[in-house]
Amino acid sequence: MGKPTGFIEFTRELPPKRSAKDRVNDYDEFIERYTDEKLNQQSARCMDCGVPFCHSGCPLGNVIPEFNDAVFRKTWKEAYEILSSTNNFPEFTGRICPAPCEASCVLVINAPAVTIEEIEKHIIEIAFDKGYVQPLIPHIRTGKKIAVVGSGPAGLAAASQLNYAGHTVVV
Questions:
Q1: pLDDT digits (tens, 9 = 90+) for 49-59
Q2: What are the extents of the domains in the chain?
C-alpha cells in the first residue's frame, strides 16, 4: 500500500463544487477536480486492510485498494487498467453509483471513508486526458447476432463485452 500512515495523516476531503452562478451558464461538471496533491493524499488514506470489505461493497467488484495504490504512486495507466478490468464504463458509473464501497470501507469504523468514488472519477478523467482510453475493437467477427434487452449499465456492459467477443449486438 502506498502510505501506511496516510489514513492517520490525512482527513477525508471532497473536491469543491462550482458556484451555482457559474453552473447555470454551461453543462460542465459541477464538482471540480482535486489538485494533484489532494488526489495523492486521498488515495494515501486507503489502508492496508487485512480484508478489504470495499471489494464486496462494490457491485462491480472493483479492486479498489489496488487502484488507490496506483493513484498514490501516480502510475495513471496502471490505475486505469486496474479500474477498467472490472468496469466497462467508469466514466459514468463513477458518477451515478451511490458508492456502497465507501460504506464498506474498514476506515469507517473510526474515521470517514476513503473518497473512493471521487478517486475513480479522477482515474478515468486522467485516462481520457492522457489518451489511455481507446476503443476495444474485436479481432474477428463471429457472424452471430445477439439482442440485449435493457440499456442500463448492466445491459450496456453486456453489449460491450459481447461486441468485443466479435458478435453483432443490438441493444
A1: 889 999 999 99
A2: 6-130, 135-171
- Residue ranges of alpha helices (H) inside the chain are 6-9, 20-23, 36-44, 53-57, 64-72, 76-84, 90-96, 100-104, 116-130, 153-164
Q: How much is the pLDDT for 57?
A: 94
CATH superfamily of 6-130: Alpha-helical ferredoxin (1.10.1060.10)
At 17, which helix (H) or strand (E)? Answer: none
pLDDT surpassing 90 at residue 99: yes
CB–CB of 60/18 below 8 Å?
A: no
Q: Do the beta carbons of residue 63 and residue 40 sit within 8 Å?
A: no
Residue 150 in contact with residue 107, Cβ under 8 Å? no
